[in-house]
Every structure is written in C-alpha cells, then in structure tokens.
C-alpha cells in the first residue's frame, strides 16, 4: 500500500535528519515524538470520506442511501453535527491528500475515492447555497455531463407512436388511455410483483452465484417522489419499496423486479458489499452516497439489467403467460404494449432535456410539466410526480438514461471482444471507479 507522510511530520523529520551519519532508526533526542508523525494512506482517507459522508447526511437528508459501517461513526456524526464550512474544508483536505498519493500513479480505488470526494464536496456546496448549471452539477457529481439533445430528435418516435395508436385527441391521452387497460388491480399487486421478482431472481441465479442468505422484503408505500426504491440494509438484505400513489402498469412489474432487485440494485449492493467492502476491505464502500458517479453504475445497470435478463420476446412471453393471468388482465394487447414501450424508450433522454432547462431556470414548473406531457407522454399526475423527483434529486435523472447507455456501450464493447454479457455486466457492478469502468476516461 502506498503511504504518504503528512507535511508536518515530513518537516519535523527533515529538520532533524540533515546531519551526516544520521540513522532514522537510532534513538535521537531531537526526533519528533511518535504522535506527531501521522502517516496517511488511502485507507485513512477512505475512513475520513465515510465520516465526511455521514456528517453530510446530517444536512442533506437524501445523501446517505445506505450505511453498513461501525454504528458509532453514525452516532458521532449525529452528535457532532459539524457545520457545512468544516465539511467543505475536510472534503478539500481529503482531495489534496489524494492528490499527493496520485504522484505515484492512481489505481481504480483511488480514482473512485477521488470522484466520491468530489461529488460530496459539490453536494456540500449545494447545501451551502452555491448554484451550478445542470451540466456542471452532472460533471462534478456523476463524473460526466450527458449529451445535449435537440428535441427534434424525439419527433420521429412520437410520430411512430402516433401511427401505432391512431385516433382523435391528443397523443398523450391516447397513449395513457391504452396503457390504463393494463393497470394491475390493487389487490393483485403482491402476487404479480412476487412472481415478477422471483423470475428476475431465477434468471440472475442462472449466471451468478449470490452470497448465501441474500434476501429482500417487498413493501407497497405511498406519497413518494419515486416509483420504486431499493434500501440496502447491509448483511446481504434489501427492502424494496414500490410506490402505489399512481396506478401501476403490468409492464412495470418485470421492470421494477429487475431494476430494484435482480440483477439491478439488490445484486449491485450485494457485489459491492461482498467484493469491495468485505473481500478487499475498502471501507469507503460501507457508505452508499446517493449522489456520486456510482449512481451511473447503479441506475444504469438497473435499467440495463431488464434487457440483460429478458430478451424482448422472453419478456412478452412471461408477461402474457404468467403476469397477465395473475393480474386478471386480458393478454390480447400485450404485444402492442411492448411495441409502445420500445418506442417510448427512444424518448428517455427527454428527461435530461427538460430537467436541464428547468433547473437552469429557463422554464418554470408549468412549462416543465407541459414538456413532460409532450415528450414523455406523461399524464399530468405522472408529470407532477416526475417533477417532484427532479426537485428532490436534481441532475440525478441522467443516471437512468445516460447511465443505461454507458452500461450498454460497455457490454457491447466487451461482447465484441468475446466476453459473455453477464460477465461484462458483473465487471461494472463490482467496479470501484464508475467513470473508469464506463469508459469515460
Ligand atoms: Zn433505481
């Protein structure tokens, strides 16, 4: 392990070691007391980062997504409640020390830690009231800004959807009237989600050996700005929450089962815990900050995981044969629903286009909702929920579409070289350095 000696200790050693025949190991009454020599290595910086993250969590309620480190560190963060100015200085100090370490070259762990600390520094500055543009925030927190798209890029997909669902009235209304035929009745939600998650798990187990005892529990909740959430509890256990504020379409069961569960967030958390934290002993992975480049891996892999686990035809067959009967729905329109969803995926980057203009102050809330109705074909209720999400999580939206594209591009690159897709996917899940793993540098 590389180590650096803190500047103070270096100065003290230099001042007492300049005579001829000086032996550092020999007792020397002019040598500094041992306590004055502080040796800083990447493990020390990783520990300081975890404590910084816990302290930031006291100001930024969404920052700590999961924590499985020493409970006394979490307690101390709560008791001390360090001010934001002190946290900003600590983030800068960690980055400076990492810069000293980097003189001997940077490995993936150190690159990852630097990106985690940079993201934390940016969230601290946001909490202090500093403002960044959407693209600056994306680059500082997630390691790269997403491509800027012309809304005309979405027009072809909208025209194709119009042709798929012809009729009178606005396209968004036609699309949602069609989709509403496939909403899961409330009393069938549990059975449909249990079956979907079990299938996602089986398909994942065909490729991965998961840690023994891994498990999740499923809860249905209300009044949230998201549609689903995985809360990693540590100990290879997750709580998956599904928001029932709005009707849940049958196509969301497999999507959420893969995204929140297998091979998405739950499996990602298992691998990070097993491989990075426990096997490698990298303490920085005892905290999962919501806002960091790791989110590109988290959301990108969770969305790509749906495609990895189910080829289009397989998803359609499974939904038609298992989920539609469980939900008591007529499977006659299943193929058309899937064709609609394939076209809607081409609109996924509209979220960045709208969030960028909204967060940069070029459009107001009403205009953002109108754009979501037009380009995301969202009902007004769904558009409001999505805008609540943007208010809470800001540039995080890029992780779903841009992250998915980066993960897909990695899998394509690796499979072109002969790799197996699930193996290439696992490399991403277990990477300590998102930007490096996703080919951004
Ligand atoms: Zn997610």
Give a quick set of tags describing it.
mainly alpha, 7 strands, 8% strand, globular, disordered N terminus, binds zinc ion
Walkthrough of the structure:
- The chain has 441 residues and is mainly α.
- It has two domains: 129 residues, no CATH class; 287 residues, no CATH class.
- Helix content is 58%, strand content 8%.
- The chain is built from 20 helices and seven strands.
- The protein has a three-stranded mixed β-sheet, covered by helices on one side. Strands 1-2 form a two-stranded antiparallel ribbon.
- The N terminus is likely disordered.
- The site of zinc ion has 4 residues, from α12.
Short description:
With 441 residues, the protein is mainly α.
Written as H for each helix and E for each strand, in order along the chain, the element string is EHEHEHHHHHHHEEEHHEHHHHHHHHH
For the biggest β-sheet, the strand order reads 4-6-5
**Distance between termini?**
24 Å
Instruction: List low-confidence stretches.
Output: 1-37
Radius of gyration, rounded? 25 Å
- Overall mean pLDDT stands at 90
Count the E strands: 7
Q: Structural class per helix/strand content?
A: mainly alpha
Major β-sheet profile: 3 strands, mixed
């Amino acid at each position: 392990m590389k180590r650096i000696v803190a500047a103070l200790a270096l100065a003290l050693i230099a001042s007492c070691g300049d005579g001829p025949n000086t032996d550092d190991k020999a007792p020397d009454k002019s040598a500094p007391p041992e306590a004055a020599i502080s040796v800083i290595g990447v493990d020390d910086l990783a520990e300081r980062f975890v404590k910084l993250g816990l302290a930031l969590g006291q100001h930024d309620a969404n920052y700590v997504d999961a924590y499985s480190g020493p409970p006394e560190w979490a307690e101390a963060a709560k008791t001390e409640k360090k001010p934001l100015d002190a946290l900003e200085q600590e983030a800068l100090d960690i980055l400076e020390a990492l810069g000293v370490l980097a003189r001997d070259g940077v490995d993936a762990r150190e690159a990852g830690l630097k990106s985690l600390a940079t993201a934390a520094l940016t969230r601290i500055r946001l909490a202090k009231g500093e403002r960044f543009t959407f693209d600056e925030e994306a680059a500082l927190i997630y390691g790269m800004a997403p491509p800027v798209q012309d809304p005309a890029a979405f027009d072809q997909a909208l025209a194709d959807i119009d042709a798929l669902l012809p009729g009178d009235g606005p396209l968004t209304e036609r699309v949602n009237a069609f989709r509403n035929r496939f909403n899961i009745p409330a009393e069938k939600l549990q059975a449909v989600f249990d079956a979907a998650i079990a299938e996602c798990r089986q398909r994942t187990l065909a490729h991965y050996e998961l840690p023994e005892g891994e498990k999740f529990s499923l809860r249905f909740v209300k009044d949230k700005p998201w549609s689903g959430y995985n809360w990693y509890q540590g100990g290879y256990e997750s709580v998956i929450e599904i928001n029932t504020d709005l009707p849940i379409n049958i196509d969301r069961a497999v999507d959420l089962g893969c995204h929140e569960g297998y091979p998405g967030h739950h499996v990602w958390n298992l691998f990070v815990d097993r491989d990075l934290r426990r096997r490698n002993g990298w303490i920085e992975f005892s905290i999962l900050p919501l806002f960091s480049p790791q989110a590109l891996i988290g959301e990108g892999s969770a969305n790509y995981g749906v495609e990895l686990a189910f080829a289009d035809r397989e998803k359609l067959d499974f939904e038609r044969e298992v989920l539609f009967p469980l939900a008591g729905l007529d499977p006659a329109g299943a193929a058309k629903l899937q064709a609609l969803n394939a076209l809607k995926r081409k609109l996924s980057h509209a979220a960045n286009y709208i969030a960028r203009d909204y967060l940069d102050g070029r459009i107001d809330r009403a205009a953002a909702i109108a754009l979501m109705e037009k380009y995301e074909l969202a009902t007004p209720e769904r558009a409001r929920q999505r805008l609540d999400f943007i208010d809470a999580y800001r540039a995080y939206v890029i992780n779903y579409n841009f992250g998915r594209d980066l993960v897909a591009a990695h899998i394509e690159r690796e499979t072109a070289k002969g790799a197996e897709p699930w193996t290439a996917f696992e490399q991403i899940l277990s990477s300590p350095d998102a930007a490096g793993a996703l080919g951004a540098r």
